[in-house]
Fold this sequence. Notes:
542 residues, elongated, 19 strands, 14 helices, 4-stranded antiparallel beta sheet, alpha+beta
Amino acid sequence: xxxxxRWKIVVLALSLVLGLLFAYPNALSPEMRAKLPGWVPKSAxxxxxxxxxxxxxxxxxxxxxxxxxxxxxxxxxxxVTMRETRINLNSLQREPGGVVVALADPGxxxxxFEALRLLAGGPNQxxxxxxxxxxxxxxxxxxxxxxxxxxxxxxxxxDQSIEVVRRRIDSLGTREPSITRQGSDRIxxxxxxxxxxxxxxxxxxxxxxxxxxxxxxxxxxTQLALQGRVPPDSQLYLDTDGVxxxxxxxxxxxxxxxxxxxxxxxxxxxxxAIDFRFDGVGARRFAEATSAENIGKRxxxxxxxxxxxxxxxxxxxxxxxxxITGGFTIAQAxxxxxxxxxxxxxxxxxxxxxxxxxxxxxxxxxxxGALSTAIGFAIIVVFMILAxxxxxxGVSVIGLLLNGLLIIAAMSLTQAxxxxxxxxxxxxxxxxxxDANVLIYERMRDEARAGRSVIASMDAGFNxxxxxxxxxxxxxxxxxxxxxxxxxGPVRGFAWTLTIGVFTSMFSAVLVSQxxxxxxxxxxxxxxxxIADAPLNNSAKV
Length: 542
């Protein structure tokens, strides 16, 4: 174990070079890092919210509102299907999870059931049947979401919301945001360096549900709606001027789900506008909506319940491309494009808690963390030298320095966020690293006291202590894995730093000691083990 093997020297030298290469950018300013050659790593440590400052939001996914919206769409789908299949209704009775279709003619029950069964479709990609039709009595059909679909809506909504929020924050250029689930329906967003929580909340919180719906062209129906008699298949909105009422069909002709791209453009007068393109399904629906039978009519473009444009259809648009105009500024158009490209939220988000960590407070935390790390390192160095002398203690310190270098390099390479609890994990890693040396040295000391030679004592120290070292570090890895899996925010930061430290400390403490002590043994050829006559009180025994 203490032989000066060539492969150990090569591995140690290579780890030192790579450690310096990946840790070096941390010693440079951002301007200097930008000027480095392309092949040189440029990533520095990514400081977390508590060290860098930034914004913190705790969001709640409004799952009940999403379910209500889904059932609204389901009711409208049933209404349109019954109309297209010429089935007469007495009423549509909404109930939790779906709707009951009361038929005017009981003889049409089978036809209604078949039409709704086709509307339900088959299982989704996860094998879950989302909607189903069932006969109720002799003159009604129930069409509703299955219990499995209702149960999965909450978890699916949170997962989809996390992805949408991530894309939206990425569009702001925020570096390494932390977006994690908390509980069953909450999301924690930490955006280091983002000093404007209002903008963050505005970008994240907007649902961005874009729909294209036909405007009712019959003025008599509009007058009846203004008198409070709104047709069941329509809804009143305000036009883009915020004053003129518009009666708009509930049926969605095309939605933002079919968008493949949105971008900032300009209209005929050079004012900012939003260019968009649909996928194949959306292009076909858009062509149908602008077909000959609708030419001369208006269709409304609605974003989150607000009409942003209501142009006249002047011709069929088969290409699936279009433009939204509405007196936008460049900033408004850019923000809307980012929202549309990021995708619509499946459910509204409610801000439960907002917090801002200033850059000054983050700088104070960095100083405190650096000071605590330096003090912990100094205490360990003093202890090791006093307990094992300058030779063996110095070897441990060199291993400790390499360990710190490799941790910084690994975190810079992976761009994992370093938090204040992560610094605590770093200090704990230093203690764990020298613990391996303590186990090895104490075994060497016991063997030397038993009368064994220097080389036999050192060889036994590495061999017999290795099992205990591996066992202790595996236990630490398991604990860190549990914290990372079930923790959030600071707990995960601590667990990640500790995990990296376990691997680097195992490598540096053992390999550095073997190489340096092997070199000393080869060149000095000592007759007595230097630490044999320096007992350590309360020493660790293997």
